[in-house]
Specification:
four-stranded mixed β-sheet; four-stranded antiparallel β-sheet; 132 residues; mainly beta
């Protein structure tokens, strides 16, 4: 199946309402298979807050986050390996994302997180695949 750009944009736009004021949690350890898989042996390093309108409208099959509030005091020390986005209730997982300082879905200031340090996100983009 190969989807149209309009369909990919519509799919991505459904993420916006569920992630408004959501929580972007950054973890160490092995990234689970998907966001439905329980965390196991992962350490919560930091928690950032999505904007009240988390994303703009998707364009060209890409969804770009609006400003994300930094975590002014990281929860733990460790090497960040992935991010999981939760609804604002903090319990309903939406999706997992790659993260790093460049070339990933979530761009953070450093993957070497130190407890009580500031963790910031400069960009978050989600691209819907065309299909195979």
């Amino acid at each position: 199946m190969r989807t149209s750009v309009a369909r990919r944009n519509a799919m991505l736009d459904t993420l916006t309402s569920s992630s408004n004021s959501g929580l972007l949690r950054i973890y160490s350890g092995t990234r689970p298979t998907d966001a439905d898989t329980a965390l196991s042996g992962n350490t919560l390093l930091a928690e950032l807050t999505m904007g009240s309108t988390s994303f703009g409208s998707a364009s060209g099959g890409v969804l770009t986050a609006n400003a994300i509030t930094s975590d002014s005091s990281a929860d733990a020390t460790g090497t960040a390996s992935f991010a999981r986005l939760f609804q604002s209730n903090g319990t309903t997982a939406i999706a997992d994302f790659s993260l790093g300082t460049s070339g990933t879905e979530v761009i953070i200031n450093t993957v070497s997180i130190v407890a009580a340090a500031v963790v910031s996100c400069s960009a978050m983009t989600i691209t819907a695949p065309v299909g195979t």
